[in-house]
UniProtKB/TrEMBL annotation:
Domain YjeF C-terminal: 219-491
Entry EC number(s): 4.2.1.136, 5.1.99.6
Family from the record: In the C-terminal section; belongs to the NnrD/CARKD family. Belongs to the NnrD/CARKD family.
Descriptive protein name: Bifunctional NAD(P)H-hydrate repair enzyme
Cofactor(s) in the UniProt record: Mg(2+); K(+)
YjeF N-terminal domain mapped to chain residues: 14-210
Molecular-function GO terms, alphabetical: ADP-dependent NAD(P)H-hydrate dehydratase activity; ATP binding; metal ion binding; NAD(P)HX epimerase activity
Residues the entry annotates as binding K(+): 62, 120, 156
SUPFAM superfamilies documented for this protein: Ribokinase-like (SSF53613), YjeF N-terminal domain-like (SSF64153)
Function description: Bifunctional enzyme that catalyzes the epimerization of the S- and R-forms of NAD(P)HX and the dehydration of the S-form of NAD(P)HX at the expense of ADP, which is converted to AMP. This allows the repair of both epimers of NAD(P)HX, a damaged form of NAD(P)H that is a result of enzymatic or heat-dependent hydration. Catalyzes the dehydration of the S-form of NAD(P)HX at the expense of ADP, which is converted to AMP. Together with NAD(P)HX epimerase, which catalyzes the epimerization of the S- and R-forms, the enzyme allows the repair of both epimers of NAD(P)HX, a damaged form of NAD(P)H that is a result of enzymatic or heat-dependent hydration.
């Protein structure tokens, strides 16, 4: 059975998995042998011309993996030098150290040579503090000389829980990890510091690779069972009616991007509700998307009497904070799903608790903040250095009884019940003005089709990245919206594990 590369486990959970494997009779030294063999294989495959492999070893099991890799590389005819601290007597690492021929020099003795490749087997994922001065000096020498680094489990100095460096940190070209990915492999800047990731099966049974973390890499298995299904008897209203609220004339483009994306995501109808002075401008851009002139709260109350309206997007280019808050309260009272983005999020910075209270009960609110918007709405969470991006998103979701799509190169999707996903495959060129408006529209379009909010958010983030890959480097947000497609069931099924 292929290894499940979708589940993420924290370093603490991985320790519990290792302990469960040992209790189940799996020999821990056999696991170490397999881990070291994978490390050696990666070095041989990617650095066949290395003149010397330098293995820097810590005193724990990560160092034990390094000793195994060193022995196997020597047996393959590779010149190997080991530097570091000897392990404590009696454990697996001590056995691996004893079985590896040659000496172990002090860490500070390593001086880079041309043709060196470093295997970083110092600490791995378990370290959540800054490395010492001796390790920092080694990191600095490797960085200064451009010496390639292959990290065992995680580059030393990088938190496997948060993906943030705890101080000086190796920048690896390759990282070899075992059994399951850790959050630090996907969260930025950890993903960049890991280089190419190799997830390897070392013999831990799949039934043990589980935890209470409820954290995954975003993948089709999270949402494919809930994707809208085409029905020959369907009509436009069975595919949902999405309402997108526009801002004033000067900032109406953001709503247009969201509306186009919602329609392309499969909503049967999309209406843009605009201030009266923006209607003609919007009409000049739309054909398939409908228009509604909408003034204040009374006009909105009349429109909300139409039960065919199935989901709402408020915030892109909206502008008026007082009006955004008032409209949001009215939308909350309908019991239908709402996406708050951009100005819809910022408008509630001073009344966050009231927003959460308005959306009690079944989860029907989604927020799509970027880093700055998140900090405005959740300054207490944003300022806490002990929290990972996953921790912050989960806490925010619980506070507001909402699904939070915390955007970025490592977008985190979190539900109030703790389910979370990290998206790691969106292209870099998504970082362009208007991209977030498109995402809000895709999510609104899926919610209009009655997808549950967490599953819709995971699907929307995946669709957003796929549209960007179709659009290509140099795309604009208009290009991006034009490349949105309804979810493909066959592709989703193929990606399930």
């Amino acid at each position: 059975m292929a290894i499940d590369d979708t589940r993420l486990v924290t370093p603490a959970a991985m320790g519990a998995i290792d302990a469960a494997a040992a209790r189940g009779g799996i020999d821990s030294f056999t696991l170490m042998q397999a881990a070291g063999a994978h490390v050696a294989a990666v070095v041989l495959a990617h650095y066949p011309d290395a003149l010397r492999v330098v293995v820097v070893c810590g005193p724990g099991n990560n160092g034990g993996d390094g000793h195994v890799a060193a022995r196997l590389l020597m047996q393959s005819g590779v010149a190997v030098a080991r530097f570091g601290a000897p392990p404590k007597p009696g454990g697996d690492a001590a056995r691996a150290f004893t079985e590896c021929p040659g000496s172990l020099a002090p860490l500070e003795d390593w001086q880079p040579r041309a043709g060196d490749v470093v295997i970083d087997a110092l600490f791995g994922a378990g370290l959540d503090r800054a490395v010492g001065d001796d390790v920092a000096a080694v990191i600095a020498r490797a960085e200064a000389t451009g010496t390639p680094v292959v990290a065992v489990d995680l580059p030393s100095g990088l938190s496997g829980r948060t993906g943030a460096p705890t101080g000086p940190c190796f920048r690896a070209e390759h990282t070899v990890t075992f059994a399951a990915r850790k959050p630090g492999h996907l969260l930025m800047p950890g993903r960049a510091l890991c280089g190419r990731l190799h997830l390897c099966d070392i013999g831990i049974p799949a039934r043990l690779i589980a935890s209470d973390d409820r954290l995954w890499r975003n993948h089709p298995g999270l949402y494919s069972d809930h994707l809208p299904v085409a029905d020959a008897a369907a009509h436009k209203y069975t595919h949902g009616h999405l309402a997108v609220f526009s801002g004033p004339l000067i900032s109406s483009g953001a709503a247009r991007l969201a509306a186009v994306a919602g329609l392309r995501a499969g909503a049967g109808l999309v209406t843009v509700a605009s201030p009266p002075n923006a209607v003609l401008t919007q009409a000049s851009h739309f054909t398939a998307i409908m228009q509604r002139a909408l003034g204040g709260a009374d006009a909105l109350a009349d429109w909300l009497g139409d039960r065919r309206l199935s989901a709402f997007v408020l915030g892109p280019g909206f502008g008026d904070a007082d009006k955004a808050r008032a409209f949001t309260r009215q939308l909350a009272d309908t019991g239908r799903p709402v996406v708050l983005d951009a100005d819809g999020i910022t408008a509630h910075a001073a009344c966050r608790d009231a927003l959460g209270a308005a959306f009690g009960g079944a989860v029907r609110l989604a927020l799509t903040p970027h880093e700055g918007e998140f900090a405005r709405l959740f300054p207490d969470l944003a300022k806490d250095p002990a929290l990972s991006k996953v921790d912050r998103a989960r806490a925010a979701a619980a506070m507001l009884n909402a699904v939070v799509v915390y955007k970025g190169a490592d977008t985190v999707i979190a539900a109030p019940d703790g389910r979370s996903a990290i998206n790691a495959d969106a292209p870099a060129w998504l970082a362009t003005a208007g991209s977030g408006d498109v995402l809000a529209g895709i999510l609104g379009g899926l919610l209009a089709q009655a997808m549950p909010v967490f599953e819709a958010a995971c699907a929307a983030v995946a669709m957003h990245g796929l549209a960007a890959r179709r659009a290509g480097i140099g795309m604009t947000a208009e290009d991006l919206a034009g490349q949105v497609r309804p979810p493909d069931h066959s592709a989703a099924d193929a990606g399930r594990t």
